[in-house]
Design goal:
The protein is an alpha/beta fold. The chain has three domains: about 190 residues, Rossmann fold (3-Layer(aba) Sandwich), CATH 3.40.50; about 190 residues, HUPs (Rossmann fold, 3-Layer(aba) Sandwich), CATH 3.40.50.620; about 100 residues, GMP Synthetase, Chain A, domain 3, CATH 3.30.300. The protein has a nine-stranded mixed sheet with strand order 2-1-3-4-11-10-9-6-7, sandwiched between helices. Strands 14-13-12-15-16 form a five-stranded parallel sheet, sandwiched between helices. Strands 17, 18, 19 and 20 form a four-stranded mixed sheet that branches. The two termini are about 35 Å apart. The structure holds xanthosine-5'-monophosphate (XMP). The site of xanthosine-5'-monophosphate has 11 residues, from loops.
Length: about 525
């Protein structure tokens, strides 16, 4: 969210009174995940810079503070520190890994350099009772990732959990409402990690969990209104869920000051362009600019078969077309993008830093700078499932909200070989059949991504009395958590059969269908 309390965008935070937990970010890779797990408990939670001033923290009036992990050692020169006054505010604190070591060091305890680096799964046992451990079984597997560990020589803490190498894996301060974990409760490898965070938030901080995703929308809407004023915002629509959610939030915030641009590059799925029109012109009555650039793209791509070159051309032409349209919209000051938190990580940015980063392969990468726009990224702190919940709340359809990802270069990288209007039509029809059959078999939501690929290969077939020599469709369907690795989906044979029969009967110019049984790695999900 652009309304984060980080100094990059300090606006709009404290206007809505609700239970708030702040995560002070010490640079850990999973810091944002902590915030998300707390939000899963229906308690609003935001990541903020570790050096947010005490005055600002008091102003925000959080119910609890979580000090995240981080890559540094507390003994490193220049390692991030914390204001000692934080521990006298009476606000419950949970230190995680580096966060705990820092609490310990700041309060006068010592931290020892780990003689034995602990990394990975470790068994952890409960050694004392405390509300923080409510419902936690006697032994759980936790995810450790640390070199240093606290060495409680001055008796600051009471041990709550221990591992074989760390007698104080979970601790509680003797007199203050301060807890600490040497392991990471936010990662899925830690059993009951969500429960520990829930206990901190509810049992220790006393939160009731009344926050809803709709509060986040209200918060975003207020911040956008305040930031945009009377100016105009341009939002590029791709047809996917992220840009649609951004447009819907903006529409709620600024209505007629929003202009949406949708570039029809001729590489879209069947019916996509009509759906976008229906959604953003008829349902949300936005100022929608649909640019029909089908011919332009096909001309530029004529004769090109090399995948990287295709991608480059599609990216370049997109920017040129988008830019021209954007320039035709007077007084636009802002450009909105649907960057999600995982995109921010992918592009190597730290949430700590102010740099605006864009997904490397993002459609409109580079545009804001070129056009002198200020960037609005309302989803920047969110994870995909939170965006989906927001989408439903904003009135977007289930079909859109659960749509499989579709790459920026679209059918361009699924139509192998040379791109032409007839070949793209063939692919579009086959792809629509694949999706229709998955939906009617109830598999669309079970599979994370599925599509058809048109191969530049002809093979012999027989139809009626005649010999055919036509192209091949490959069907790809994968199960994946994060799209970084993926397994091919073991599709039921009857579904494969229906897909194959329908494609061969209904799509002219295709006489063979094959199923892709390769996993990623070593293959990729897309074929180009
Ligand atoms: P690969 O093929 O690399 O794909 O295994 C992983 C995920 O990324 C999507 N993808 C893209 N998305 N622009 C996008 O917006 C692109 O250029 C692009 N290339 C791949 C792919 O569909 C899959 O979900």
């Amino acid at each position: 969210m652009t309304v984060s309390v980080a100094p990059t965008a300090p606006a709009g935070v404290s206007t809505i009174q609700e239970e708030l937990i702040l995560v002070l970010d010490f640079g850990g890779q999973t810091a944002q995940l902590i915030a998300r797990r707390v939000r899963d408990q229906n308690v609003f939670c935001q990541l903020v810079r570790h050096d947010l001033s005490i005055e600002r923290i008091q102003e925000l009036n959080p119910k609890g503070l979580i000090l995240s992990g981080g890559p540094a050692s507390v003994y490193d020169k220049g390692s991030p520190k914390v204001d000692p006054r934080l521990f006298d505010l009476g606000i419950p604190i949970l230190g995680i890994c580096y966060g705990l070591q820092l609490v310990c060091q700041t309060l006068g305890g010592s931290v020892k350099s780990g003689t034995k680096r602990e990394f990975g799964r470790t068994e952890c046992r409960v050694v004392a009772a405390d509300p923080f451990l409510n419902g936690i079984p006697e032994a759980i597997t936790v995810w450790m990732s640390h070199g240093d560990q606290v060495d409680d020589t001055v008796g600051l803490f009471r041990p709550l959990m221990s591992t074989s190498t760390c007698s104080i894996a979970a601790v509680k301060h003797h007199t203050k409402p301060i807890y600490g974990l040497q392991f990471h409760p936010e990662v899925t490898h830690t059993e009951q990690g969500g429960r520990l965070l829930a206990n901190f938030v509810k049992e220790v901080c006393g939160c009731h969990g009344t926050w809803k995703i709709s509060s986040l929308i209200e918060r975003e809407v207020a911040a956008i209104k305040a930031r945009v004023g009377n100016n105009r915002v341009i939002c590029g629509l791709s047809g996917g869920v992220d840009s649609s959610v951004v447009a819907a939030i903006l529409y709620r915030a600024i209505g007629s000051q929003l202009s949406c641009i949708f570039v029809d590059n001729g590489l879209l799925r069947k019916g996509e362009s009509d759906k976008v029109r229906d959604r953003f012109q008829n349902h949300f009555k936005t100022d929608l600019h649909v640019v029909d650039a089908k011919d332009r793209f096909l001309q530029e791509l004529a004769g090109v078969t090399e995948p990287q070159q295709k991608r480059k051309i599609i990216g370049r032409v997109f920017i040129e077309v988008f830019r021209k349209e954007a320039e035709s919209i007077p007084d636009a000051k802002f450009l909105a993008q649907g960057t999600l938190y995982p995109d921010v990580i992918e592009s190597g940015a730290n949430a700590d830093g102010p740099a605006a980063t864009i997904k490397a392969h993002h459609n409109v990468g580079g545009l804001p700078e070129q056009l002198g726009f200020e960037l609005i990224e309302p989803l920047r702190d969110l994870f995909k499932d939170e965006v989906r919940r927001m989408g439903l709340e904003l009135g977007l359809t289930e079909e859109l909200v659960w749509r499989h990802p579709f790459p920026g270069p679209g059918l361009g990288v699924r139509c192998l070989g040379e791109l032409s209007a007839p070949r793209l039509t063939k692919l579009r029809e086959a792809d629509a059949i694949v999706l229709e059959e998955l939906r009617s078999a109830g598999l669309y939501r079970v599979i994370q991504q599925a599509f058809a690929v048109l191969l530049p290969v002809q093979s012999v077939g027989v139809m009626g009395d005649g010999r055919t020599y036509e192209e091949v469709i490959a069907v790809r369907a994968v199960s994946t958590d994060d799209f970084m690795t993926a397994d091919w989906y073991p599709m039921p044979h009857d579904v494969l059969q229906r897909i194959s029969t329908r494609i061969i009967n209904e799509v002219r110019g295709v006489n063979r269908v094959v199923y892709d049984i390769s996993s990623k790695p070593p293959s990729t999900i897309e074929w180009e």
